[in-house]
From TrEMBL:
This is Diaminopimelate decarboxylase. It holds the Pfam family Orn_Arg_deC_N. One of its GO terms (molecular function) is pyridoxal phosphate binding. The active site is at C328 (proton donor). Gene3D superfamilies: Alanine racemase, Lyase, Ornithine Decarboxylase, Chain A, domain 1. Its cofactor is pyridoxal 5'-phosphate. The keyword Ribonucleoprotein does not apply. The gene is lysA.
């Protein structure tokens, strides 16, 4: 999107505000499907946790996407968006059997990642096909918090426990219709991904009724100009060749599934904030904005870098600023960053704000969560209202003391 469009949106809807460019989401979806165009049966299940606004889910449904969900609430959001139950996979971690039963009754694909629930569910519902999430014991991801396939991870059933899985399947006579893995996020080295894929193929050989193999996601997207990213096109060629070969060995055309979140929506998102104060100290110039890690926690939580542009002065001379928020703790978005000269009341746009940004927002310091806007067909559409004081207190119960 152009700086001029972002500035107009901030003026119309106020700040802070999240903006999503539908054209970028569509182009990323098409790029992924094109990379795997030689796979006969391809399934893209958008990871709802990245950005769960119903309008975004509807947009992706219109492109042909299914959904990857991790909670019963995300399942229900998907159904509300009109996604068919059979196009939703539910992959929880550490939830109760009751929640999994609820999802099963809604007709979605169940994906189980521990032996205890697998045995309990298989005993009660042997006729409900389930997918199994394995842990391939491959360390992958850009941060320890988002590397989920290593040996110490809480996610998935260890590949060393396959004999236990087979015993449960035999005893319960349940059907395993899919095998799933997810090694982590921000994966750059496709060879690591391909290595983990071989483990998935080896695991799949133990099951005779499979319908699909789910390779997760975690593709690295660029966060700044010249940044490195996963080469989806090269990865598509290499995995397609190996997957088609495996289908011949297996004797059946399986579906190849992915569950991208960040890859589809990260670059589509912009977070717009207004500069309240430009504060010069003895060593630093702070640009203090009308937001904080209550709205965008990734820099403080993951050390994530979001490129910041001054849409009010995009051609101004560059100076160095530390961009900080208004939360009553260390609340830094960027340290000593080169940005076009900033004045008070300027609008700053944080790029790559589509994934895991609004979805991780909170009401810390009793601040309102911001509005969300979708830029679609050259028109700005409000898809979530800014919260109000009524929203903050609506579930509170004032007792007599």
């Amino acid at each position: 999107m152009l700086e001029k469009q972002l500035l107009h949106i901030a003026q119309e809807f106020g700040s802070p505000v999240y903006v999503y460019d539908s054209e970028k989401i569509i182009s990323q979806y098409n790029r992924l499907t094109q990379a795997f165009s030689k796979v006969k049966n391809l399934r893209i299940n958008y990871a709802v946790k990245a950005l769960s606004n119903i309008s975004i889910l509807k947009l992706l449904k219109g492109l042909g996407s299914g959904l990857d969900t991790v909670s019963i609430q995300e399942v229900k959001l998907g159904l509300m968006a009109g996604v068919a139950p059979e196009n939703i996979i539910y992959t929880p971690n550490g939830v109760s059997l009751e929640e999994i039963e609820t999802a099963a009754k809604l007709g979605v694909q169940i994906n189980i990642d521990n032996l205890s629930i697998l045995e309990q569910f298989g005993t009660k519902y042997p006729n409900v096909p389930v997918c199994i999430r394995i842990n391939p014991h491959v360390m992958a991801g850009g941060n320890t918090n988002i590397s989920v396939g290593h040996i110490d991870s809480k996610f998935g059933i260890s590949i060393h426990q396959i004999p236990h899985i087979l015993r449960i399947v035999e005893n319960t006579e349940m059907t395993i219709n899919g095998i799933h893995m997810h090694t982590g996020s921000d994966i750059l080295d496709i060879d690591v991904f391909l290595y983990a894929s071989e483990i998935l193929f080896d695991t799949a050989k133990h099951f005779s009724n499979l319908e699909f193999l789910d390779f997760g996601s975690g593709f690295k997207v660029p966060y700044k100009e010249g940044d490195i990213e996963t080469n989806i096109e090269e990865f598509g060629k290499k995995l397609t060749k190996r997957f088609n070969q495996f289908c011949k060995e297996y004797g059946k055309e399986l579906t190849l599934a992915f569950e991208p979140g960040k890859f589809l929506v990260s670059e589509a998102g912009y977070f717009l904030t207004k500069v309240n104060v430009v504060k010069q100290t003895t060593s630093t110039v702070f640009a203090q904005v009308d937001s904080g890690f209550n709205h965008l926690i990734r820099p403080m939580l993951y050390g994530a870098q979001h490129n910041i542009i001054n849409v009010s002065n995009p051609k101004g001379r560059e100076r160095f600023y530390s961009v900080v928020g208004y939360i009553c703790e260390t609340d830094t978005f960027a340290n000593n960053r080169r940005i076009n000269e900033i004045s008070e009341d300027d609008i700053l746009a944080f790029k790559n704000a589509g994934a895991y940004c609004y979805s991780m927002a909170s009401n810390y310091n009793s601040r309102y969560r911001p509005a969300e806007v979708l830029w679609h067909n050259s028109e700005a559409k409000l898809i979530r209202k800014r919260e109000t004081m009524d929203d903050l207190v609506k579930n509170q119960v004032a007792v007599e003391l």
